[in-house]
Amino acid sequence: MGMNLIEELGLEKCQAIVDGAPVGATHYSNEDCEIVYYQKTNNIIYWDDVSDVWDEVYFLMPELKSISDLRAAIADHNRTDYVSDIRNHISPLTKVIER
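User: That's the sequence. What structure does it adopt?
Assistant: Structure tokens below.
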């Protein structure tokens, strides 16, 4: 199984993609690594910093990924409990009995 989306892009980048999605966007592509493209209905759009508007892309994107899947990956990552030090998770009153 390949890397998950959080490992692939990093949590901050994934959150930025979700937060930056325009209303109605269903998919995204980040092949460029600088510009994030979004699919909204049948159009592929991106934020044009120069014109300060959403602009339409007139070429085919290599691969579009689901924003829903990205949101789910972020939610799953946020609910995962990483145990870094077991001493933080055991009461100091717990007694260990050896057999």
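The mean pLDDT is 76.
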